[in-house]
Specification:
With 131 residues, this protein is of the alpha+beta class. It has four helices and six strands; from the N terminus they run αββαβαββαβ.
Length: 131
């Protein structure tokens, strides 16, 4: 998105009078339309880059369901979800803003899920786990 803003700013044609009488800005016809689209997108999209912990990646749906069931029994207060990216089933848990936020949780969860790894994810701000 930052690139889009730079392109928009770079696309403006600035005509300045040599004698300092003023500056006239002339927009290309599509600039206002793109800017409006960018503003609308950012109003609707409240996701931020953060981290989740992936506890399992398997091609066996039963293993995924067992891991999800086990996690939800041990940590009922922490959000968990799964997705299917053919051919793998992925179970992702938690929502953390910074690396420091998930490190203690990762150490604890590795006792029950030794294959757990942190992953970068788009997270809604209201999902973030605050410690």
């Amino acid at each position: 998105m930052k690139t889009l803003v730079l392109i928009l700013v770079g696309s403006l044609f600035v005509l300045a009078d040599i004698f300092g009488q003023g500056i006239q800005v002339r927009e290309h016809d599509g600039i206002q339309s793109l800017l409006s689209s960018y503003i609308q997108y950012n109003k609707e999209n409240d996701n931020i880059k953060g981290y989740r912990v992936q506890i399992i990646a398997t091609d066996d749906r039963r293993k995924m369901e067992n891991a999800l069931y086990k996690f939800r029994n041990i940590y009922p207060e922490i959000n968990s979800d799964w997705e299917h990216n053919v051919p793998y089933y992925l179970v992702k848990v938690g929502a953390f803003k910074d690396k420091l936020d998930y490190q203690g949780f990762l150490i604890e969860i590795k006792k029950d899920f030794p294959g757990a790894i942190p992953i970068v994810a788009d997270i809604r701000e209201e999902e973030l786990l605050v410690h």
